[in-house]
């Protein structure tokens, strides 16, 4: 039972990081970013490449450097995406957003292939080097504990930025009423870029944390993207609290679903999302 | 075959040499005085379709496509096929079955390709192969595994399903029957089994064949749990915990590509291999992918006898040549999709040459198809026979992993490797695989 809870928390950690980025971009900018999965993949490839370059040094150092490089790269790519593709369509209907961001997804996949090739990239040294702990009498990889701890830290940092800093308060104001915020003189353009960079770097962080346990492959961002959408639907668009609760709920539902209703592993998640959509279309913590 | 095999000899083996071992030829000999057909001057247009993007690109599509390119280059260096140069173009299999149907229509009707060699996904094969007869073009499926592709709904069924549609390899039945036979031989006291297979046709069919074979070979065996993770999952921790708690002696898996690597990596970390043993139906590439971490004593099937060390290089120089040539070009050992791509290309070449010898001049797609049916050729993995149902028949190699000095990853233990001959692992034409297994006298 304890292992299922831990597994749910571990999976929930990735869901949280991915959906956090998605929900920030959606909440602040009103953009449904389908390219978010590619940002996850970009983070994964960057971390795998960096860890590979530092293969002769300590794996933990390589991992930290890999994480930093991934977050920096995805933030930079997020900035470029926002300035070049998103900005011109910010006031356009939803279908423009979907088309543009889906195009960006394909473009980024090709760019990844161009830069790193089509081969799988492995970077498991940090996972292997950390070993296992006997947690409550159960063997459990230390790396999973590290992922959960770092995710909690990242979540708190984002909460701090959003709740306690001037930039965060302005971002929340934009999320509440974009036109009013603009009328109040809030630098919407600059802050939109900041929101996109923050969201993109969270996807990059998730991708970087994944590569020690899973190879970086072309198309690797699709599953996280779909799962992040489920979390956002359940938790509510633009809600940090919703991302936390949604990730925990989906993580635990999947973990216990696999353990006790394996035939319904995925349907359970979609069923929860459908029930939320019927009962509370804006999500558990979304705006009405 | 003995001694060093050079390119010239190799081309002889796989081309004209194939004529010597071709069986079941159905083409009539050319009537005396019949007009000799001309061999067109232009190049042969071959479309090679594999996943070049997406999760299946790295483990399957790119190695397969590399091999198509390598073979086109080698054949062209020796004058192509019947003196015609090969113009090979690679296409991406991504986009789903509908996209592949559109692409195949374009390739056949607009680009006028001579043959399509392609497809890794069973779904794509099922969607595209019917176009062969509809559009009158030769299509050779090279890597998809579904046994339903060329089988009928019930035994006995009419065959071949398509006049111009082929698969130049055996289907997934050989992997899963091979695993069951291996377990019966080496681990006869197995009482409980479990499964973790991807949740789509490939995974479901693989498990079904394995389960039917195991229940036939081990009456009363208990299936403790069957898990169906989504394709492309990046987290298997809950599955691994469930398998560890299942009490299964053997866990069957047809996970492939990144899924197989991710699952195995996480399973190592969580201690699954201390509790049970895995039987991978398509495990051959993964020790090489995971390196020294890949655990010993796991059962690996090779999707045929496709292994860089089998057939042994001293006994089968064609494999030695293939491994060295591929390694020289791509700095990796060939994995089973490479062998499958070789087979598709070599089967097409041999069929064209055989048909040309019989009809005189360049044959029509129907004549090539007639020559392909019943064809037997030597490949780097041994013999390949295209049976009357247009499906390949192959032996299957299964073994236990073992760390051996000189290799940076576990290889198949030379003392615990078994080759199950084609007649033991392939259902006869016209009989559904599951029905055939049920008919075994154990």
Rg on CA atoms of chain A, Å: 19 Å
Shape estimate of chain A: globular
What is the structural class of chain A? mainly alpha
Largest interface, Cβ cutoff 8 Å: A-B, 45 and 39 residues
User: What is the tally of beta strands of chain A?
Assistant: 2
What is the tally of beta strands of chain B?
15
Largest sheet of chain A: 2 strands, antiparallel
Instruction: Categorize the overall geometry of chain B.
Output: globular
Number of helices of chain A: 12
Succession of helices and strands of chain A: HHHHHEEHHHHHHH
The CATH topology annotation of the largest domain in chain B reads as Rossmann fold
Q: What is the overall pLDDT average of chain B?
A: 91
Strand order, sheet with most strands of chain A: 1-2
Tally of individual helices of chain B: 16
Distance between the termini of chain A: 37 Å
Are there runs of chain B of 5+ residues with pLDDT below 50, and where? Answer: 1-26, 30-34
State which percent range the strand residues of chain A make up.
under 5%
Please render the helix and strand layout as text.
The complex is a heterodimer of chains A (288) and B (442).
Chain A: H1 2-29, H2 36-53, H3 59-86, H4 94-116, H5 125-130, E1 132-135, E2 138-141, H6 142-164, H7 166-176, H8 178-183, H9 188-210, H10 222-235, H11 240-260, H12 265-279
Antiparallel strand pairs in A: 1-2
Helix pairs in contact in A: 1-6, 1-9, 1-10, 1-11, 2-3, 2-4, 2-9, 2-10, 3-9, 6-7, 7-9, 10-11, 10-12, 11-12
Chain B: H1 7-14, H2 16-21, E1 44-50, H3 57-77, E2 86-92, H4 96-110, E3 115-118, H5 122-128, H6 130-135, E4 138-141, E5 165-167, H7 173-186, E6 192-196, H8 201-217, E7 222-227, H9 237-245, E8 250-253, H10 257-270, E9 277-280, H11 286-290, E10 299-301, H12 317-330, H13 336-359, H14 365-372, E11 376-379, E12 382-386, E13 392-393, E14 396-402, E15 411-420, H15 422-425, H16 433-438
Parallel strand pairs in B: 1-2, 1-3, 3-4, 4-5, 6-7, 6-8, 8-9, 9-10
Antiparallel strand pairs in B: 10-14, 11-12, 12-13, 14-15
Helix pairs in contact in B: 3-13, 4-5, 7-8, 13-14
């Amino acid at each position: 039972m304890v292992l299922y809870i831990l597994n749910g928390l571990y999976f929930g950690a990735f869901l949280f990081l991915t959906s956090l980025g998605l929900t920030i971009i959606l909440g602040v900018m009103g953009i449904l970013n389908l390219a978010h999965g590619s940002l996850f993949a970009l983070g994964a490839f960057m971390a795998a490449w960096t860890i590979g370059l530092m293969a002769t040094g300590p794996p933990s150092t390589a991992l930290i450097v890999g994480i930093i490089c991934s977050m920096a790269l995805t933030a930079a790519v997020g900035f470029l995406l926002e300035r070049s593709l998103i900005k011109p369509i910010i006031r356009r209907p939803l279908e423009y957003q979907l088309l543009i961001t889906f195009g960006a997804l394909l473009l980024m996949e090709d760019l990844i292939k161009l830069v790193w090739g089509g081969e799988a990239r492995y970077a498991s040294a940090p996972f292997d080097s950390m070993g296992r702990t006997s947690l409550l009498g159960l063997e459990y990889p230390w790396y999973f504990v590290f992922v959960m701890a770092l995710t909690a830290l990242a979540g708190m940092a984002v909460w701090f930025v959003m709740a306690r800093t001037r930039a965060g308060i302005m971002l929340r104001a934009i999320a509440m009423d974009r036109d009013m915020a603009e009328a109040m003189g809030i630098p919407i353009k600059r802050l939109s870029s900041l929101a996109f960079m923050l969201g993109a770097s969270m996807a990059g962080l998730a991708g970087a944390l994944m590569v020690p346990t899973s190879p970086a492959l072309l198309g690797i961002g699709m599953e996280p993207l779909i799962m992040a959408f489920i979390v956002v639907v359940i938790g509510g668009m633009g809600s940090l609290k919703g991302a936390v609760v949604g990730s925990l709920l989906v993580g635990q539902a999947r973990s216990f679903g696999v353990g006790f209703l394996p035939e319904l592993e995925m349907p359970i998640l979609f069923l929860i999302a459908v029930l939320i959509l019927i009962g509370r279309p804006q999500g558990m913590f979304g705006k009405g | 075959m003995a001694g060093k095999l050079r390119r010239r000899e190799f081309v002889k083996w796989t081309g004209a040499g194939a004529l010597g071992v071709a069986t079941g030829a159905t083409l009539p000999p050319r009537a005396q005085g019949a007009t000799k057909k001309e061999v067109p001057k232009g190049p042969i247009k071959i479309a090679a379709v594999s996943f070049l993007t997406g999760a299946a690109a790295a483990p399957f599509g790119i190695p397969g496509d590399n091999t198509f390119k390598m073979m086109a280059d080698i054949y062209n260096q020796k004058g192509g096929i019947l003196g015609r140069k090969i113009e090979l173009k690679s296409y991406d299999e991504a986009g789903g079955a509908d996209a592949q149907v559109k692409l195949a229509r374009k390739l056949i009707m607009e680009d006028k390709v001579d043959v399509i060699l392609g497809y890794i996904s069973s779904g794509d094969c099922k969607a595209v192969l019917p176009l062969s007869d509809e559009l009158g073009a030769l299509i050779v499926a090279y890597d998809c595994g579904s046994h339903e592709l060329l089988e009928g709904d019930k035994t006995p069924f009419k065959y071949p399903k398509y006049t111009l549609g082929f698969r130049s390899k055996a289907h997934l039945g050989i992997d899963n029957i091979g695993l069951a036979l291996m377990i019966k031989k080496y681990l006869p006291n197995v009482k409980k089994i479990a499964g973790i297979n991807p949740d789509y046709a490939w995974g479901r069919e693989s498990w079904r064949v394995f389960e039917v074979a195991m229940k036939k070979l081990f009456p009363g065996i208990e299936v403790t749990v069957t898990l169906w993770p989504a394709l492309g999952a990046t987290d298997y921790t809950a599955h691994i915990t469930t398998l560890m708690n299942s009490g299964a002696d053997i866990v069957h898996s047809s996970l492939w590509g990144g899924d197989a690597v991710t699952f195995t990596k996480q399973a190592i970390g969580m201690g699954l291999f201390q509790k049970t043993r895995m039987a991978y139906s398509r495990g051959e590439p993964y020790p090489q992918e995971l390196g020294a971490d890949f655990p010993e004593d796991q059962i690996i099937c090779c999707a045929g006898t496709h292994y860089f060390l089998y057939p042994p290089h001293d006994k089968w120089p064609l494999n030695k040549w293939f491994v060295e040539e591929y390694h020289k070009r791509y700095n990796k050992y060939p994995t089973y999709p490479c062998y499958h791509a070789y087979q598709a290309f070599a089967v097409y070449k041999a069929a064209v040459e055989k048909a040309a010898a019989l009809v005189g001049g360049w044959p029509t797609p129907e004549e090539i198809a007639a020559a392909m049916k019943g064809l037997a050729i030597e490949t780097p993995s041994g013999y390949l026979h295209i049976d009357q149902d247009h499906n390949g028949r192959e032996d299957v190699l299964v073994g236990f992993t073992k760390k051996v000095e000189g290799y940076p990853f576990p290889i198949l233990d030379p003392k615990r490797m078994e080759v199950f001959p084609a007649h033991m692992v392939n259902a006869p034409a016209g009989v559904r695989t599951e029905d055939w297994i049920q008919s075994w006298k154990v």
